[in-house]
User: Fold these one by one.
Assistant:
Number 1:
Amino acid sequence: MVKYRCKFNPWWALAALLVAASAWAGGPAVPVTRNLQADGASSTQRGVPIMLVFSAPGCRYCRLLDKDFLKPMLISGDYTNKVLIRKVMIGNDATLVDFSGKQEPADKLARDYHVHVTPTVLFLDAKGHQLAPPMVGVSSPDYYGSYLDQSITAALKRLHAEQRSATTTSNTKQTAASS
């Protein structure tokens, strides 16, 4: 019988632990949108509102929002059927495709939505219409998660109510046309 000898090297164990910890700590990146029209189509297909987070380089509250709220929301998977989370980076000459399909600067989109402070979180339908009041800044981190959940729930309810209303209107028109 051959005996194998395995020597435990604590440095390899430490290196493996550090790699695993850094991968977990970083988590998934919050998707930066480049095409709101495509995000709108995805929102419609999934039946969820878009949570659009305006962020800026060097904004410490934006980093706090990412680290303490958005990344955990993505990691948990609890929000997959509630909201489509996207980020818009402003203040860096980025461009994107807006909801109508036009290429425009991200800063113009921020101005169109009256975003003057980062982070600002908007809750939108597939066409870019607001479904709930915007969340401006991070006023109280202890309660922010609850406020975020309340806004997501309000946006989801309004979106579903508008979808039901559109379906009812469409069915009424079809009934009238066939009479």
Note: Residues 1-24 have pLDDT under 50 and may be disordered.
Number 2:
Amino acid sequence: MALPLAVMALVAIAALVACGFAGAVLAQRIGRSAAYAVQAAAAADAGAALVIGDWSTHGLDLLVAGDSAVLPRVPLPAGASYQATVRRLNGELFLVRAEGVRSDAAGGTLARREVGIVVRPADSAAAGAVTPLAHRAWEAR
């Protein structure tokens, strides 16, 4: 009678340990995925800021309304990169869209985030400068 009871207790303890281990592995994966998402979002933000900062070097003022310019993918440290696309919406507005990607060593995508900023030519005398419009929020329904 004691042996079956001891075996049952060991099985129950093993099941508790297995569930605890599975929960710990899941929490680790969730944390790692969140870190990759943050790195991808930071790459997208950096890409948009760098494109706006180097506006005149890309010749983006020469776009006509409706045209887009896809800039080359730029690698960043820690496996992140960004690729920006600039679309001229009309004579006064541009949409800067940057996609940030966090990749693994083999080049597989771990996380991807996108940001978009609407900009217009700056009022200053600096040729080729743009300024972002005030922050606006859109809600998809």
Note: The two ends are 64 Å apart (CA to CA).
